[in-house]
Amino acid sequence: MLPPKSVNRYNHPSHSIAAEDLPSTANDVYILEKKLKQLDFETTSFLDCSLENMTRTVDSFAIDAPCDSLNIIYFSGHGGQSQGQNYVYPVDFGTNIDNKLMVEESAFNIQQFTKAFNREIKLVIIIDACRDNLTLKYNHNYSEMVAPKNTYIAYATQFNEQSVCTAQISYFTETLGENI
């Protein structure tokens, strides 16, 4: 199972952040989904998800994900951390941050990926996002995260680094697709 998510077009304008659009993210999802289908994974994709949509999608996936198979959650887009918690930024992050002024209420906490499951499953979480800063005000990097039992978390890059991509594809996802 895989609900790949990407954020291609961030809502504009935002007074708080400058989240550049990421045209390669839709291709990243398509390439990874195609490869996983070749390996007989059942997949579902979502593009340009709002925070509400991401939360609803993950909660639904947590209910439906089979316990006896490998479950993969993939995200391609912007991300970061605040107060020791890791986040991926939905399409409405800039609008949310302008209205609420708190990252914690404006972004999707990566811990929600694992907390949504109230049963033991095999889970791989892949985050293809930069680990540098959108603005000086939100000058934080991803925090270390301990994965629960039977869970593996993969980041595209190291702390304080950008996930490099062309307009067509992220190098991380290209390599991932070639090697799984």
Descriptive notes:
By secondary structure, this protein is α/β, with parallel strands linked by helices. It has six helices and eight strands, in the order βαβαβββααβαββα. The strands form two sheets. It has a five-stranded parallel beta sheet, with helices on one face. Strands 4-5-6 form a three-stranded antiparallel beta sheet. β1 (about 5), α1 and β2 (about 45) form a beta-alpha-beta unit.
In short:
The chain has 180 residues and is α/β, with parallel strands linked by helices. It is built from six helices and eight strands. A hairpin with a 2-residue loop joins strand 4 and strand 5 (85-88).
Mean pLDDT: 78
Between the first and last Cα atoms, what is the distance in angstroms? 15 Å
The helix content is: 25-40%
What is the helix/strand order? Answer: EHEHEEEHHEHEEH
Unreliable stretches (pLDDT < 50, length at least 5) are none
Helical run tally: 6
Descriptive key words:
single chain, 180 residues, alpha/beta, five-stranded parallel sheet, three-stranded antiparallel sheet, 6 helices, 8 strands, globular
Which helices and strands, and how do they pair?
Elements lengths: L4 E2 L17 H15 L7 E2 L3 H14 L5 E7 L2 E4 L2 E4 L4 H8 L2 H4 L1 E2 L1 H5 L6 E7 L22 E5 L15 H9 L1
Parallel strand pairs: 1-2, 1-3, 3-7, 7-8
Antiparallel strand pairs: 4-5, 5-6
Helix pairs in contact: 1-6
